Amino acid sequence: MNSLIPWAVLCGFGFGLGLWMIIVNLPAWRPMSFAERVAPHIRVGMRTSRMLEDSWRAESRSPAVVQFAAPLLNQIKRLASLHSPGTETVRKRLRAAGLKASVVDYRSQEIICALFGLLAGSALMALLALSRPINFAFALIVALGCGMLGFMARGWWLNEQIQRRARKVLTQFPTVAEVLALTVGAGESTTGAIERISRICHGVIGDEFTETLNEIHAGNSMIQAMQNMSDRIQVGAMTRFVDAIVVATERGTPLAQVLRDQAQDVRDASKRELMEVAGKREISMLIPIVFGVLPLTIVFAVFPGLALLEMSY
Questions:
Q1: Does the reported pTM lie above 0.90?
Q2: pLDDT of 300 above 50
């Protein structure tokens, strides 16, 4: 009986993986990219059917096994690129997280996490083997699964670091944008405004402006230093702010009005972010109410009536 457990685990894993792929690829669950949303509005001049294109004919000449396994292979490639991206992508993500580690250091940390997961899975199977006999194939699957989870945990933690840093930047940036607009509107130069912000601001945004000021003093232009800061932070509001400064500087537009408009845009974006967070928290608050408080209220309301019905006078 114990020899069938690994095969049952493999069959259950395959069945669950298939169901997960079907659910994820449903139109209601699959998020549309920007290109897919815009494509129906800009696709003009097509006089032939898309079913008769060369790409479709090329796919039809491929073996049936390859066509059948194509969705699974695409999903595996997507997961692999998500949890183990390329060198340049890893470098950008490390900069977005504010880490000074190199790509080699990050890869080493991934390997170390995978080894820790493998050791933890092996230790767990060894402890279980002391109390009851365990199939070797099942123990191997669990150990390798723990190693894979350890490898993926490093990427998950990097994503958490990026999101936390982005939230800190979005929290501090409206005030910084307002101060920058007021400073430039008072007659100070853009470099002087950046220097003032680097002196009075602390935290993530203050460190970024300090590094930008150091690049300007090192000989880089103000536009290039601001673009480098935008590339390091990788936040949408910050990117739009820097692009507006660059365009205004190149075209000779009055910078004070542009900065005031961008500060207002940043405040509006912060309000939208706050409303989105409030909406998500409101939905989360319904879970304990619906599944905890409401059943308990119904029990308190119904139980006395049932007790009276069961009483005999």
A1: no
A2: yes
